[in-house]
Each structure stands twice: as structure tokens, then as C-alpha cells.
Amino acid sequence: MFSVYVEKEGLRINAVFPWKVSIVGFMANPPVLKSDVEAVKETIEVIANDPFFDVIELNILSDNAWNAAKNFLKASKLEVASGLQPLVLAQGYNPSALREDDRRRGVEAIKKAIDTSIARGIKRVAFCSGPDPGPSNREAAKDALVKSLKEITGYAAKLGVYVILETFDREWDKKQLIGKIEEAVEIAETIRGEYSNFGLLWDLSHAPMLDETPQDLRKAANYLAHIHIGCAKKMPDGSLKDWHPGFYRPGAINGVDEVKELIAVLREIGYKGAIGFEVKPEEGQVWQEVVHAAKGVLYTAYAKYLVEQL
Length: 310
Description:
The protein is α/β, with parallel strands linked by helices. The chain has helices spanning 25-28, 37-48, 63-75, 85-89, 100-119, 138-159, 181-192, 207-210, 256-269, 287-309, and strands at residues 3-8, 11-16, 21-24, 55-58, 79-83, 124-128, 162-166, 198-203, 224-229, 232-234, 240-241, 252-253, 274-277. It is globular, with a radius of gyration of 19 Å. It starts with a strand and ends with a helix.
């Protein structure tokens, strides 16, 4: 939690940031993704001791890494959420697979991760849709995804776990099935017809790759459960990468103005979830460097937003 003091034409305001602030721990400090015990301990200690943060998003850590960190987490104010995106992106489990055996394996892997999460006191999980199979098989893959989401969300509901689907780019880098926010909303409407414990995650980093802006979130207002902020990376050849470089890094797309616009839209639509940083150090950077740069961007964007409201 943080607050901002601003003044304009004699009017003064000290405003608390209206949402919880989160960070993707395994992106901020990449060795966490491999359950490196020292990296996990360091990351959690740094984030837990920083009053700026309320939530940390972790992959499914090994038992050794979790045991090394769990007591510190319990003693802190940090909430923990499970980021299951690596199951899909790195390990190949696909909840939208066209082959039923592959789809079932994806569902079971996510259910197992939910079991681990609930055993660790974690009640929010997020993952992505699986790879886009191309235009000819896209609708069939969406049907498979809906089937999987109903199974997963129904299972999670019995455990008190909230399930979140993250949208990704389809054309540039990760090339996931879902996709633009309007397609995600169609999926969410179907799942919400049966289960209330389901929502969407939208990432500002992915917006340039999807030709989206925060204004597009208006159509998803009823389904937004989490927000990520960060940057896409524009390469010298003009291509876009989902590499989440720190703000102000060479090629990084997004900055204070984009985050300010996001804040304005989220306020207008009555968003109630958290805002999480998803930033990753590049070669030669200490991981805390990208974290503190992101904090500065969010602080400044909120200050500029407040000034405009006076």
C-alpha cells in the first residue's frame, strides 16, 4: 500500500492507492521459477519487508523451497497467489488441446496445482489458454478450453479457490489461443453462467501485441479479477517480444502515460482487484532494479492521475 500527496492551484490531496499492489515473484527474480531456495528466500524477504506490496505471485515451488519460505510468509502481511502460467507456457500442459488425452493431462496438471495451492493456504490461481492452433481449429480449441475451464473451476469452487484466465498475444511471441479481451469475455460469460469463482487477467505488457489499450477493458468490467503492468519489447527488426523488460529499458513499450490511462479506466469501471508488476531483469541488471523502476512508474502515474482530477 502507498499514498500520494499532490497539490494543484492551492488544492491539496493525500490519496491512498485504491488497489492492492502485487508482483510476479518468479518473473522479478527468475531463479525463483526453478525453486532456487536462496532466491526464493531473498525474494520473499525483500517483497515482504517492502510496505509497497500486498501480494506476491509465485509458481508452484518445490517442497524444499516452500518450506524454506513459508514461515516468513506466515509472519508477513503478504497474500500469496499461484501463477500457473509456466505449466502451460514452459511445461506444455494445454487446457485447450484438441486431442482429448492431451486436454485431460492439462486439466489434471492444473487441478494438482490447485491441490498444492490450497494445502499451502493459497486461494487464487491463474493460468493461460494454451497455444493457438490456427484459424481452422480455433473454434474447436475454444470449445475444448471452455470444457476444461468448467471442470477446473467447478473443482476449485469446492475448495474455495478463485480461477483466473490470463489473455496473451496470438500473433507475436507466446501465440496463445486467448487472445483479445472480447474473446476472453465470451469465455468468461460462459463460465460465469455456472460458476462465480472465475475471472480474467489483463496485462498491459500484452496490449501492444494485441492492438489493445486500457480503454478496451470497459467491455470486460464485470469479469476483471487481476491486472498486470509491465512492458512488451520492440526488437530492432520491428517484431514484438513478451519479455517483460523493466520500464525505460531499450525497446520497452509502455510507461507512465499508459499506466496513468490504465488507472483512469480501472477507476471508472469500478475495478476491485489487485494490480501486479510483471517485470524481468535483463542481462547485467540486479533484480531489485526493475522492481524499483516499476514502483516509480506506478507512483508517478497515480500522482499525475490525481492532479488531473483536481
